[in-house]
Amino acid sequence: MPATPCHVVIVGGGFAGLWATRALAAAPVRVTLLDRGNHHLFQPLLYQVATAGLSAPDIAAPLRHILRRQRNATVLMETVAAIDTRARRVLCTNGRGVDYDFLVLASGATHAYFGHDDWADHAPGLKTLDDALHIRRRILSAFERAEAEHDPAARRAWLTFAIVGGGPTGVELAGTLVEIARHTLAREFRRIDPGAARVLLLEAGPRVLASFPEALSAHARAQLQRLGVEVRTGQPVQAIDADGVCVGADRIPARTVLWAAGVAASPLARTLGVPLDRAGRVPVQPDLSVAGAPEIFVAGDLASVQRPDGRPVPGVAPAAKQMGRQVAAAIRARLAGKPAPRFRYRDFGNLATIGRMAAVVHLGRLRLTGALAWWFWLTAHIYFLIGFRNRLSVMLSWTWAYWSYQRAARIILGDAAADQPRSTRQA
Amino acid sequence: MPATPCHVVIVGGGFAGLWATRALAAAPVRVTLLDRGNHHLFQPLLYQVATAGLSAPDIAAPLRHILRRQRNATVLMETVAAIDTRARRVLCTNGRGVDYDFLVLASGATHAYFGHDDWADHAPGLKTLDDALHIRRRILSAFERAEAEHDPAARRAWLTFAIVGGGPTGVELAGTLVEIARHTLAREFRRIDPGAARVLLLEAGPRVLASFPEALSAHARAQLQRLGVEVRTGQPVQAIDADGVCVGADRIPARTVLWAAGVAASPLARTLGVPLDRAGRVPVQPDLSVAGAPEIFVAGDLASVQRPDGRPVPGVAPAAKQMGRQVAAAIRARLAGKPAPRFRYRDFGNLATIGRMAAVVHLGRLRLTGALAWWFWLTAHIYFLIGFRNRLSVMLSWTWAYWSYQRAARIILGDAAADQPRSTRQA
User: Fold this and answer.
1) Could you say which of B77, B144, B148 has the minimum Cβ distance to residue A144?
2) In terms of domains, do A156 and A249 share one?
3) Which residues of chain A neighbour B188 with C-beta distances below 8 Å?
4) Among partner residues B130, B191, B389, which is closest to A408 by beta-carbon distance?
5) Are residues A90 and A143 in the same domain?
6) Are residues B132 and B269 in the same domain?
7) Chain B residues close to A38, C-beta within 8 Å
8) Domain count, chain A
9) How far apart are alpha carbons A356 and A229 in whole angstroms?
10) What is the CATH number of the domain that holds A247?
């Protein structure tokens, strides 16, 4: 072992990066965790910030506060621009460099528009807290603009919400949006009936929640329809612009289109100089290191990993945490001169919430729907949320929301006028 | 009375505008409340959002939710550009117009840089929730940048915070900043000692909290110094740029300068076409109407009103609420063919908080300092906060903060890189 301890640099403070950092607490290493923000984000509840149910600080905690007692870990707020694999150095956008002995790349994924980058302006995606506040502003402003609008067709377009993508995020957004329209905003407007809002969930594939068994997908679809969501499957979106969305042969005028369809790996992967998979992720060795660069590990959504049966490891929080811990174990093994363990994904199941008292749960042979699934989802999310204070605050918000049908964070932040697409800014 | 009820248009959903709207609930009028945002803001606690103690939604509530049961009130989210007093029409920035029979102008004040508009980029002020999130980002990022910085002088500048203006907002910001540096962030950094941060409070006049009796000002100053704030009075700030502030003969390198010094009336006042006072406010008649335009009232920070002894009515929440109710009473009297009552300001006293267990209270002959004043301040602010859920959430945050020394909302939102002044963006 060298005189100065081995330096592990971890890029990204999400589930993979943070769990890797924590699992190195007792290892004979110095750890530097780099993240462009100052916080760890509990992404499974991000849609609740987007739909005004929770405040941004409820689902995030400062990384350096989480790691305050881990003396071998230093947290730096830096945006990483590239990896210089030859010099073993991480290059930051401000020109600084950080040298590493081991690198853990866990910079995650961002939303992808499948070659339609012009859709990004019209259909925001949901990956960061800033994305969530942007979507919240768009949703709340749409009802405000409908109230101020005199032309019936224009008003109708403000009251039409199209969500592209029928995965868990799309289902959660759609279910919550109808609840906001039918319950939260009821009786608060004088000129419009917010309950008449149209919420569409557009999925290109044959069914929603494709990662669940077919029976649960069918159940989720029925639940969404019962709540008032129009579900369309089997038709890809053809076009998105400031005024609406084209799907199949139909053009749907909608001033609010939300993107929950695709993700792509962080562009940092490209700077590694190794072949990537179709989604831009890094194919890794059984111990999650990179072929030809054993000192570099990739964890979380950025890693392309298969299960023994050939199915990919899904991009969910439990998988990212497991990969983070695996990478730490591999580094510890290498330092001890032992062979690194192989990564084995333990599938703890799959949860998705649909709306009030409606969720689907798939845990091995256990399949739950309805109220029981919803309580299960609720308890699991409170349990896994980091920070005692956040748990209390989220429980308070949820209890209050349940009884009042109100949302705790119905506040428009940022410049709402700036969101209006240029073509329509002048009335 | 006309067949269609008389239309009262109220511009601004702050304390004056909201209290005017509510006081017209039983009047034979239609009320339209216009605000550029969707929420009423509890401004007295805005500094707590700026210093990461509370979330933005904790101190704000949607205007249309507050007014949901007032059937004669319509809320519209519109930005007002000008008043056409001849046509009796409010002109919005989107080209729409709203005709009025009575107009209540309550668009408040914004921060003013006394002719130094270039200071605005370097020394943000605190009036809106977006301002508060911007200041929160600046404060939290400064400690992050100090930790990443290797040059001792540059690090020192990141750890120096200068607050310009020794009124209640400046005192609250300074007192909270030292608490954050000494307690909240203690033991969370590896390279810097956040407790070594320097917090300066710069006041051009002879004493801090000039609206309080001299003995309480002196007490507040002593308290601030005991907490660790460097208080400088009697020296106006000469210059502010990206790297620091000049005060008296000194240049103080400081990467974070906050502006709590001056306010100016909303520029809407200028479109009324009447003479304004030096701060841009509208001198009003005894019933708060505008001379020569009896159908226009001005309330809140936008109105220039003197007390019988010649002292101005202060720009505080209780005064704004009283003016709002006065304007509603005047409109009701006019509609009933009676003379409008004269406005009389009832001074309920003056509170300012300094830090943990330290505040000053001045209520007539009653003067409190220390822990008792602090409990009084705390109780009053919880009591006046709108919304049961907000009260609970704020109490939870405060109780937790008191025991843990932690701040509930230590989350950087928005693009921190964009805040860095251009001259220094490249290291």
Assistant:
1) B77
2) yes
3) 62, 64-65, 68
4) B389
5) no
6) no
7) 140-141, 144, 410-412
8) 2
9) 14
10) 3.50.50.100
B58 CB neighbours in chain A (<8 A) are 55
Tell me, yes or no, whether B200 and B288 share the same domain: no
DSSP A167-224: SHHHHHHHHHHHHIIIIITTTS-SS--GGG-EEEEEESSSSSSTTS-HHHHHHHHHHH
Contact B305, B270 (CB under 8 A): no
* Residue A169 placed within a domain: yes
* Among candidate residues B335, B366, B393, the one where a domain is terminated: B335
Catalytic residues of A: 172
Residues A77, B141: C-beta atoms closer than 8 Å: yes
For residue B343, give how far its alpha carbon lies from the nearest alpha carbon of chain A (Å).
Answer: 32
Tell me which chain A residue has its CA closest to the CA of residue B49.
Answer: A57
Whether A100 and A162 share a structural domain: no
Q: Which of A37, A96, A396 sits opposite B393 (nearest CB)?
A: A396
Tell me the nearest-neighbour CA distance from B74 into chain A, angstroms: 6
In this complex, the residue of B57, B76, B144 whose CB is nearest that of residue A38 is B144
A382 and A300 assigned to the same domain:
no
Residue A61 falls inside a structural domain: no
Q: Which of A389, A403, A422 to mutate to test the interface with B (most CBs of B within 10 A)?
A: A389
Pair (B11, B126) in one structural domain: no
Q: What is the pLDDT of residues B127-159, one digit of tens each?
A: 999 999 999 999 999 999 999 999 999 999 999
Q: Is the pLDDT score of A383 beyond 90?
A: no
Report the residue count for chain A. 427
Predicted confidence (pLDDT) per residue in B222-269, tens digit: 999 999 999 999 999 999 999 999 998 899 999 999 999 988 899 999
pLDDT level of residue A385 (50, 70, 90 thresholds): confident
Examine residue B71 and state whether it is found in any structural domain, yes or no: no
Residue A52 lies in a domain: no
Coil, strand or helix at A16: helix
In which domain, by residue range, is A286 found? 6-36+78-111+263-335
Which pTM does this prediction carry?
A: 0.92
Is the domain of A16 the same as that of A82? Answer: yes
Per residue of chain B (427 residues), what is the pLDDT tens digit?
A: 445 789 999 999 999 999 999 999 999 999 999 999 999 999 999 999 999 999 999 999 999 999 999 999 999 999 999 999 999 999 999 999 999 999 999 999 988 898 899 999 999 999 999 999 999 999 999 999 999 999 999 999 999 999 999 999 999 999 999 999 999 998 999 999 999 999 999 999 999 999 999 999 999 999 999 999 999 999 999 999 999 999 988 999 999 999 999 888 999 999 999 999 988 999 999 999 999 999 999 999 999 999 999 999 999 999 999 999 999 999 999 999 999 999 999 998 999 999 888 999 999 889 999 999 999 998 999 888 877 677 878 877 777 777 777 777 778 887 655 554 433 322 2
Interface test with A, best of B190, B385, B395, B406 (most A CBs within 10 A): B190
Distance from CA of B237 to the nearest CA of A (A): 30
